[in-house]
Amino acid sequence: MLLLCSAVCIYSIEVVLTNEFTGFENPAATFLESALDLGEIISHPASTFIYQNTEIDDRSPIELVKWYVIDSSLKPELIDSVLIELHGEQTIRRVSSLCYTTEPVLTLGTVTAIIKHHHITPAIPDDLQFGLHSALIPLPAAAFISRARGSKMSGLGIKNEDLLVVRRDVNYEQGSIAVIYSENKFMCRVLNLSNNTLDDADGVQSPLIRPLSAEGVATASIEFKRPVIAWG
Fold this sequence. Notes:
- By secondary structure, the chain is mainly beta.
- The chain is built from one helix and 13 strands, in the order E-E-E-E-E-E-H-E-E-E-E-E-E-E.
């Protein structure tokens, strides 16, 4: 999967991958004039909250935890997904799937974004607008935000056009989703150290040739369901 990265990506460091993988600080940090703030996802702070859901996938060493950003102030449209309460349980459903429901449904809010965690999931911040960025990126000098291109990792939750949080302060481990530079392009692949391969979400494997230029670990991806921000 190709990645259109911010300017920090041009400062690539050749890293020899061993069993002990470590991150490194972003050498371009001092050249950045301004930084994106993930708190901008929260358009209406007083009416926005996080609904957390967990999925299990045998292809990942950790459970895929999803944070659904729910805005209760938005009027849902037919193509939207919403958080509803049905039979005393909360679930995410498409509005279009509820058109012929005869049972009483309580709509709690509209999904504006889905934050998928591909690493250890942080605690949900009490103040989403001011705490979301630091929760996802605890060390800004060792991280960057990129945009995914392609669908080879969609089976693991990384879809085309998602924003990727890529961190260099976490260890490269078995099952980590790493951003690598190979064959003149950036790719997002699963590190399969037990088999010495780089895998996509469909299980297609390519040899892990050392040394490899590694840009960091994709710890989270963000899928937007509403145009809540205007980033390029």
